[in-house]
Amino acid sequence: MTGFLDIAAAAKYLYRSPRWLRGNLSWLPHFRVNGQLLFRQDELQRAMEKFREPFKEIDLGEILDRAGVRPPRLGRSPGKRGAR
């Protein structure tokens, strides 16, 4: 079990503002002790899991082909042509 975070620490943990936390208390697990909001870090992490984006593999070559973009050739430095 983890300790409790006050609203400032919970906001920092989630990279959000305390105002954002207060506005989302309806779905964030929390405790209110003598008017002070307290959060458990493990419960906040589980609550945020519903926002996880699924990982999707991409084929960068296919994307570039569709866009009609050719990657630069490697191994040659861009210099003046015909210069000796």
What features would you describe in this structure?
The protein has 84 residues and is an alpha+beta fold. It has one domain (4-67). The chain has 4 helices and 3 strands. A 3-stranded antiparallel sheet has the order 1-3-2. It is elongated. The protein starts with a strand and ends in a 17-residue tail after the last helix. The mean pLDDT is 85.
Biggest sheet architecture: 3 strands, antiparallel
Structural class: alpha+beta
For the residues shown, what is the average pLDDT?
85
**Overall geometric form:** elongated
In short:
The protein is α+β, with helices and mostly antiparallel strands.
Keywords:
single chain, 4 helices, alpha+beta, elongated, 84 residues
Q: Secondary structure elements and their pairing?
A:
Elements: E1 4-6, H1 7-14, H2 18-23, E2 31-33, E3 36-40, H3 41-48, H4 60-67
Antiparallel strand pairs: 1-3, 2-3
